[in-house]
Amino acid sequence: MAKALTAGLTGQTGAGKSTAALTFKSSGYYIIDADKAAREVTVKGSPVLTSLAKAFGEDIIKEDGTLDRALLAQRAFSDKQHTDLLNSITHPAIAGRIEKLRNEAFASGYDRILIDAPLLFDAGLDSLCDVTVAVTAPVEKREYRIIKRDGLSADEARSRMDAQKDEQYYISHASYVIMNDEDTQTLRERTRETIIKIEENAEKNV
Fold it and tell me: For 144-157, how does the pLDDT look when each residue is reduced to its tens digit (9 = 90+)?
């Protein structure tokens, strides 16, 4: 019987992480979306939402009791101190939610889990993983994809890119790196090659 394995997938915005995640899924991995987990821990009435309101203002909770994500983002990303405050409130809850989802997936019979998380390393989610994978891409290609995907101006795209860690950060932290500098089909092929390497190494370590 194969040993249960948890992989973590991350990458800078516009690098192609979503395409890589779909390739993992088609290879039999159960996907846990960290962005979805983040939304789940900030639902109406949640302790995290209460803590965020105390830190960033009661008006970040809309009249219907849900989080005004745009207003929170405006305040939380205004400077590093506020961003660190946001992360100190949300990251432990997100990590706890993801660990719960992973354990439930294993209990349901899945033996291959992928945690898809932009902040995999920042949030300490890599501690839940046996291996980590980072998708990287040239700056120009990332900028083009973000503009096309999100309808942003070049300046807006650059600002979003500059708010993240640089490529070397991802390369230095990840077990495997997938360079997405060609077309989508090449990215899928490189991702499948990486999955094969992960599986081969997992078998060696059984």
Answer: 988 998 888 888 88
Distance CA 39, CA 145 (A): 24
* pLDDT tens by residue, 91-100: 999 999 999 9
Rounded to 5°, the CA angle 145-151-155 comes to: 80
pLDDT digits (tens, 9 = 90+) for 108-133: 999 999 999 999 999 999 999 999 99
Q: Would you list the DSSP string of 95-151?
A: HHHHHHHHHHHHHTT--EEEEE-TTTTTTTGGGG-SEEEEEE--HHHHHHHHHHHH-
- For residue 1, pLDDT over 80 is answered with no
Strands 5-11 and 176-179: unpaired
> Would you mind telling me the total number of residues written for the chain in this entry?
206
Distance CA(19)–CA(26), nearest Å, equals: 11
Contact by Cβ (8 Å): 98, 92: no
How large a percentage of the chain has pLDDT more than 70?
A: 99
Structure tokens at 142: 């990332």
Report, in angstroms and rounded to the nearest whole number, the Rg of the chain calculated over CA atoms. 18
The pair of three-digit structure tokens given for residue 122, joined into one six-digit string: 């920042």
User: Which of 186, 24, 48 lies closest to 117 in space, CA to CA?
Assistant: 24
Q: How many CB atoms lie within 10 A of CB 140?
A: 9
